Each structure stands twice: as structure tokens, then as C-alpha cells.
């Protein structure tokens, strides 16, 4: 076996070699850490800018595109409301016929009551497109 002093000398040599390696690597490590921090800051700033741009684009779309898209939607709604109005007028006509049939029957005017029934049936047979 060798003397403990020999092992100590070898251990000291290994320790010095490790220290040199750590010193050279740590400098590179800290340099890369700084570069990583700068890159992280740049990415954070870029993300913030993208968020601001998205907000601005959304605002522009609401002011311009949405208003343009609303025109045909509102036109379709207007057409639907007109169709509903025509149907409601038809319903009102049928209700009026019903009331007149009851009053005609009560006074014994059966021919006019039958005519009112025929009119009511023709009103019920019509589709909204036929009324226009």
C-alpha cells in the first residue's frame, strides 16, 4: 500500500483539476444564464405586444367587421318579422270569421255562416307565401 501522503497529493491534484473545470464551466454557465434571462425578457415583451395587438384587432373588428355583418342579419330579421306579421293578420282574419259565424248562426243566417266557414277554410289553407 501507498502512504496516505501520496493519496493526499493525488486528491489535491484532482481537486485542483476539478476547481479549474468548475471555474471555466461556471463562467460559461453564468454567461448562458444571462443570455437566457435576456431571451426570457424578450419573449415576455413579445407576448405582451401580441396581447396588445390582439386587443387592438378585436376592437377594430367590433367597430368595422361586426357592423358590416349585422346588416344582412338585420335584413333577415326584418323579413322574418314581416312574415310573422302576415301570419298574425291571417290569424286575426280567421278569428274574425269565427266570431261572425257564431253571430250569423245565432240569428239564423245559415247561408252567410256557410260562406264565412268557406272563407275561414280558404284562409287556413293559404301558406304565408300565397298571401304576398
Notes on the structure:
It is a single chain. By secondary structure, the chain is mainly alpha-helical. The protein is 94% helix and 0% strand. It has helices at 4-107, 110-125, 128-131. α1 (4-107) packs antiparallel against α2 (110-125). The protein is rod-shaped. The relative contact order is 0.05. The model has no long low-confidence stretch (mean pLDDT 84).
Outline of the structure:
With 132 residues, the protein is mostly helical. It has helices at 4-107, 110-125, 128-131.
Features:
single chain; 132 residues; mainly alpha; 3 helices; 94% helix; rod-shaped
List the helices and strands and how they pair.
Layout: H1 4-107, H2 110-125, H3 128-131
Determine the strand fraction and express it as a percent band: under 5%
Give a count of the beta strands, DSSP E runs of length 2 or more. 0
Q: List unreliable stretches of 5+ residues.
A: none
Q: Termini distance?
A: 117 Å
Total helical elements: 3
Q: Looking at the structure, what is the overall shape? A: rod-shaped
Secondary-structure element pattern, one letter each: HHH
Rg over CA atoms: 46 Å
Query: Strand count, sense and closure of the main sheet?
Result: none
Q: Averaging pLDDT over every residue, what do you get?
A: 84
Proportion in helices: over 70%
Decide which structural class fits the backbone.
Answer: mainly alpha
Amino acid at each position: 500500500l501507498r502512504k496516505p501522503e501520496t493519496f493526499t497529493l493525488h486528491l489535491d491534484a484532482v481537486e485542483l483539476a476539478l476547481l479549474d473545470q468548475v471555474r471555466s464551466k461556471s463562467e460559461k454557465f453564468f454567461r448562458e444564464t444571462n443570455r437566457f434571462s435576456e431571451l426570457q425578457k424578450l419573449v415576455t415583451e413579445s407576448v405582451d405586444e401580441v396581447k396588445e395587438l390582439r386587443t387592438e384587432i378585436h376592437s377594430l373588428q367590433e367597430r368595422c367587421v361586426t357592423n358590416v355583418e349585422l346588416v344582412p342579419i338585420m335584413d333577415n330579421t326584418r323579413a322574418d318579422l314581416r312574415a310573422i306579421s302576415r301570419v298574425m293578420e291571417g290569424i286575426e282574419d280567421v278569428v274574425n270569421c269565427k266570431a261572425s259565424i257564431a253571430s250569423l248562426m245565432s240569428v239564423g243566417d245559415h247561408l252567410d255562416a256557410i260562406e264565412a266557414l268557406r272563407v275561414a277554410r280558404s284562409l287556413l289553407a293559404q301558406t304565408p307565401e300565397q298571401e304576398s
